Amino acid sequence: MAFSGFSDNTTPQQQRNLPRISGSEAVIRSFLAEGVDTIFGYPGGAIIPVYDALYDYREQINHILVRHEQCALHAAQGYARATGKTGVCIVTSGPGATNTVTGLADAMLDSTPVVLISGQVASSTLGTDAFQEINFIEITNSVTKWNCQVKRAEDIPEAIAKAFYIASSGRPGPVVIDITKDAQNGLMNFDYKPMKFIRSYIPHHNINNDQILEAARLINLSRKPMALIGQGVILGGAEQELKEFLEKSGIPAAATLLGLSALPSDHPQYVGMLGMHGNYAPNIKNRDCDLLIAIGMRFDDRVTGDPSQFGINAKIIHMEIDPAEVNKLVYADVPVLGDVKKTLPMLTEKVTKNDHSAWLDEFRVCYNIEREDVIEPAIEPRGAHLRMGEVVDAVAKEFDDAILVTDVGQQQMFASRYFRFKRSRSIITSGGLGTMGFGLPAAIGAKIGAPERDVCLFVGDGGLQMTSQELGTIYQSQVGVKIVLMNNGYLGMVRQWQELFYDRRYSFTELTNPDFELLAKANRIPYRLVEHHEDLADAVKQMHQTEGAFLLEVRVEKEENVFPMVPAGQPVHNIRLE
Amino acid sequence: MEKEFIITVFSENKVGLLSQITTVFTHRNVNIESLTASESAIEGIHKYTIFVKNDEEKVTNLVKQIEKKIDVLKVFCYSPSEVVLQQVALYKVQRGRNVEDLVRRHNVRILDIHDDFIVLEKTGHKQEINELYQMLSPYGLYQFVCSGPVAIIKSRRELLDEYLDYVKEYQKNLE
Questions:
Q1: Chain B residues touching residue A142 (CB < 8 angstroms)
Q2: How many Å apart are CA A482 and CA A540, to the nearest integer?
Q3: What integer pLDDT is reported at residue A13 of this predicted model?
Q4: What pTM did the predictor assign?
């Protein structure tokens, strides 16, 4: 690693005036310089020196002791996505480090800023298969935005400064700094300078005005445009800029799973969620559009179905910060490179004020079809059993303006479909990687990051058991997460595919579950079971009124399917209502 | 349609970067025909020359993915006609009159002479190297080794310099 080494640029006189501290303390003081107030972590042999330094800074930094390193990452992701700040984790070498790989991969695919400090064996023993040694840099190459190993105490501040800069700028992502034990123990003269520039990494290129003009020209000509809102709007903090663009142009707007809440759910131009289990209107209308304006989204296959058929009659404007996403899956007639926070206002200025109300009405017609065929039966079911849609609806009614956290699977889709969002940063879910077990630790991180807001987690019986050890974290750190367990005794989403595409051969998707009441009680978390429609509202109210964490177990219909559905690999206009 | 491309990558001199670059290829199931790594003409900047055969769209995306690596400064992609290419090959061959004829006709250098074999060096394009290989084969070729191509662009200025100028301007605007 070639560091510019600012500590070497100082004069001997300056060196003497700098505080001489250990590399470990330098880690903590670098965090403080970056404004870090919360760390999610798990100690171990190769990181003990950093934990020892942290002991003196307990008043300034809140350390959350998770129960598994994967969950340190997911909690940091939840924290980052609720706050907009960079999530921070500390783990030890070897198994501590390898346990984080799923979390890093999740953060990589969902562009979440996270900095992970991993301990490493002493540099003299590197490469000898020492106890708890693993080549973590090699392992994390494809699941990090950047990584580096630090072997000298004096290189720590610059490495951490670089880590925070890279993790949070441009298209955000996870960064790993692997610090050998001798570097943690070594002494150095501490001086911290935040990173502002790396010559091989330019996160914001100049905006090309011709692209803006061409995009505006297409928008002004278009009769049937649709805007596709991605997480880029939230990451760029461009919610207001988006609103101004939409309200001037009059264009209907749909959101990706991660783009939800960038625009309030009740905005008159909001036409629903895109994707495999998204709303009927934005999928079925895809074929009719003559222009798609993708705003900070990456054409994930769960959004596009068959990419060659996506927007088949439309020109495509792709507003994107990451040049590598342009033309990766869907050809962009007009790419607009740059942060949407900057490009949207430039575009708004050039578009003419327009009214697409007749076109918007077409979406409303589709919505009414979906309302009658799918939504009403889901949220007001006639059958004996509770259904997931009505549970989400009941929680959304009781909790005004909560942060929705989901696990992965059917409850994720029901929750994202039927929850209502008032403000940005109100959904935290594993989109790209689809990590079961993400929900509980992410909800912990979200609640710690935004203690003033209610955090409602929807999780299945399968997903909860993947990371249920974190109920212990909730107890120890007194994290007031409201957990809604949708228990159907199945790995529901896989079971749905087996029903629809594998001739009902339910191969290993049925779960014989533990007693979740005992699990809650073991962790001293208040609990209630709901099995009937008439008890639902009261139980949700009790959950709301109970201080702190709550586990609400809802026994739902065992074999319910999520609809609408775009069969995998098919054009999105092939969306099925049943 | 599959075509030949020469990808040149300029990067910081960082341990492990080569593996990051090759991961981009394996991740997308693209075979590397050859790869050479060395220091560039600019101090502290490394250069990789990578030869691939694939369709243009895939290679364009690949180039962007490599450039996304934080420690990569800039990536350029050329067709063979845009660069001057050269490879070097070494042949260990049995001594004999016919071999000496070939040496004269093919502009081959003799690097080492032993009682029963000689070591020859041929620089040129892959095709010339292969042709000589075919011709030497009947006379007892003991060993053969060939490098991947190195490439130099036909335009006068190194394009990386333009990037470095741009970066300097960018940094100035930050201050």
A1: 23, 27
A2: 10
A3: 62
A4: 0.95
